[in-house]
Amino acid sequence: MFSYIIRRILYSVPILFGVIVITFVLFYVVHPPHSVALQMLGPKAKPEAIQNWLHNRGYDKPMFINTQAGRSLFDSQLCHHIKSLALFDLGKSLKTNEPIIDMFKRGAIPSLCITVPAFFLGITMAILAALFLVFVRESLLDVTGTILCVVSMSIPPMVYVIFGQWLFATQWSYFPAFGFIPGGFSMARFLALPICIMAFAGIGSDIRMYRAIFLEEARSDYVRTAYAKGLSARRVLLVHVFKNGMISLITLVVASLPLLIMGSLIIEDFFGIPGLGNLMINATRSADFTVIMAEVYVGSLLFLFGLLLTDICYAIADPRIRLK
């Protein structure tokens, strides 16, 4: 398995390099640093101030390859950008000049406090509901549950946020509508409503997906054999159907792990939670391109790690799978 992991990591290097180059072209070529300097310093900034701003950030170097006499070919913006990311130096914010790694550390805890509980709550409810619909398949409860799932999928996530804030925070005053206080019971009060909304917002699509997976397993020959041996429907569903559907579940669950760490954009913005999702929203509003590029880079790393973790979980869940 160790050699397989090493090969997968090496295969990920070209993909990550492509992501870095594409984001660099989008932000540095399509939107050149000179226009960013005008946006940061103002349209009436003097040429000397603009030149100093570009020089302090290394934006006065050639874009891709340095062809100046006596200078290295790799003394360019792209090469320095790749070198910094390889050392996990994410740079500094254009707006605040604060190291982005410190901004990520500060925003990671609030994001994880929302996404991790919401993830486990949502997946637990979705799996239990899907197993129940398979248990009562082709009945009125199954049809009603499927229709409710489709209705839930048709509602935009923002509607859940607005309605949840209006009902539970404004009308009933059960939870705060905005803000975040770290630590203790106060933090739990601020996070309870966002966690529940995030868990319920995507539960409809998850139930339908898991129901399809379990329903396909329930129609297999081994299930009919289990029923013929006299096993109860509850045992067949929880032991056989659920266990054999784990391969498909792993693909869906592990692929969503990067989203847990990167936070939720809508939830954090509406509730004023200073997480990574809110950081991305603020960076987009203020055109802080270095923060956006750093989040894209970290998100790519997490996605590639999720793919590797998926394959490893396959081998753990099914002994017939070998990593070669």
Describe the structure.
With 324 residues, the protein is an all-alpha fold. The protein folds into 2 domains: 18-86, no CATH class; 105-317, MetI-like fold, CATH 1.10.3720.10. The protein has 16 helices and no strands. It has helices at residues 2-29, 33-41, 47-56, 77-86, 100-135, 140-154, 157-171, 184-201, 203-218, 221-228, 233-244, 246-255, 257-262, 265-271, 276-285, 289-317. Helix 1 runs antiparallel to helix 16 (289-317), helix 2 crosses helix 3 and helix 9 crosses helix 11. The longest helix is centred in the middle third of the chain and has 36 residues, at 100-135. The N and C termini lie close together (7 Å). The model has no long low-confidence stretch (mean pLDDT 83).
Quick structural overview:
With 324 residues, the chain is mainly alpha-helical. The protein contains 16 helices and no strands. The chain has helices at 2-29, 33-41, 47-56, 77-86, 100-135, 140-154, 157-171, 184-201, 203-218, 221-228, 233-244, 246-255, 257-262, 265-271, 276-285, 289-317.
Radius of gyration: 25 Å
Structural class: mainly alpha
CATH C-level of the largest domain: Mainly Alpha
Distance between the termini: 7 Å
Helices and strands, in N-to-C order? HHHHHHHHHHHHHHHH
Query: Helix count?
Result: 16
Largest sheet: none
- Topology-level CATH name of the largest domain: MetI-like fold
What's the number of structural domains?
A: 2
Q: What general form does the structure show?
A: globular
In the predicted model, the low-confidence regions spanning at least 5 consecutive residues are none
| CATH evolutionary superfamily of the largest domain | MetI-like
CATH architecture of the largest domain: Orthogonal Bundle
Beta-strand percentage? Answer: under 5%
Mean pLDDT metric: 83
User: How many β-strand runs?
Assistant: 0
Give helix % range: over 70%
- What multimeric state do the chains show? single chain
